[in-house]
Design brief:
- It is built from six helices and nine strands.
- It starts with a strand and ends with a strand.
- It is α/β, with parallel strands linked by helices and about 200 residues long.
- The protein is globular and about 45 Å long.
- α3 (about 95-105) runs parallel beside α5.
- It has helices at about 45-50, 70-80, 95-105, 110-120, 135-150, 165-180; strands at about 1-15, 15-30, 30-35, 60-65, 70, 80-85, 155, 185-190, 200.
Length: about 200
Amino acid sequence: MLRAVRTKGLSLVRGERRLFSGFDLEIRSGQAIALTGRNGAGKTSLLRAVAGLLKPAEGEVEFLGEGGALEAEAARAEALHLVGHHDGLKSTRSAWEELLFQALWTGGTEESARRAAERLDLDRLLGLEIRRLSAGQRRRVALARLLASPRPLWLLDEPMAPLDAGHREGFGVLMAEHLAGGGMVLAAVHDPLPVPCDIVEVGG
């Protein structure tokens, strides 16, 4: 079981530009961290590096369980969800087809996908194609995967941006439940997270 994630001396480079160097961070069970900083500072790149989608120029990302270090590839495959700024949903699928596909692909079930749809207020939208949904509705479909196949670490890139006030409040409740159960949230944000969190500036 994943209990903590630690970056040590992390340096990230995109193209010809070094985003930051020597970046140290630790997030533990039950903790939320909001990553702040100017546009282009490297917040999204940091999330991608933790998820294994971007190779650091220097340093490392460590995944820790109760007994010590975990194998990074296995931890990434089984213990985290990344919801990016772009939702990555297939536009020609219905909301239900996309949610079910993502749930099953990440270890959930049809039953857990149904429960997640209910919690994210998606029931009346499930028969619609993704391309017919608003930005906020698409974001809720993407976020439903977090509940349909529970994993301890949520990596979220501007999760609240497209949501209206009511659904921001609702997702805040889900986030608080995740943290209370020992989960972790690492989020790149411009808007404040709706849960108590530590703030870390990237590229400052």
